[in-house]
Predict the 3D structure of the following.
Amino acid sequence: MLQRAFFVVVLMVALGSQALAKEIVFAVDATYPPMEMLDANKQIVGFGPDIVRAIGKAAGFTPVLKNTAWDGIFAGLAAGKYDAVASSVSITEERKQTMDFSEPYFEVQQGVVTAKEAKITSVKDLAGKTIASQMGTTGYFVAKKIEGVKAKSYDEIGLAMEDLYNGRLDAVIADSPVASDYALQHPQYSKKLKLAFTIASDTPEYLGIAVNKGNAEVLKLINEGLKKIKANGEYDAIYAKWFQKK
């Protein structure tokens, strides 16, 4: 009996270890600093990846981050190439028709980046200008709605910033932390560019982690982990690491 009880305990421990080792694959477009990007060693880093890894640790699963181009990221989710998308995805009513979202993990506005000498301080000043953003993002949706502008889309936000830096655009719109990073922190672009202003939407814009419709198991784990790191202070520590640098 003693030997059998020992075997049962070992089996339970083993099963528990397997549960903790469950892998959840997250697609990330690592071209959006400081939210998601590649470091010098080609590792995926940033605010979002740190949040995902903390969620995994808190909820008892192993997150696997897969660098994925933005233009096919949602199609890949629908095709089952990964379990979730954690790539600064704004929660919108349109997207909620085809995917489910975690609880929000970040509130964002749209930042407008211009050349330092540009006399652009409001949306009205963009009339007659050429502006750009990354395709399929809320920044691009905002750009297309501004009257009197020529809106261009780019595969990556960095390509748009490069054209702005070289004088081929009048402004670039991106999530405010990304806009700030390029305009204020980037060693090259910050010399010529500035964050001119931010555009607040009529309703608050939040980022969430997307999963396929009905994937309740993965969604539950993500929400459990997110709740825990918000409660234990780890979320605040990660936020301070990326957005409150001294």
User: Anything to note?
Assistant: The mean pLDDT is 91. The domain at 12-107+206-243 is CATH 3.40.190.10 (D-Maltodextrin-Binding Protein; domain 2). The chain has two domains: 12-107+206-243, 110-199.
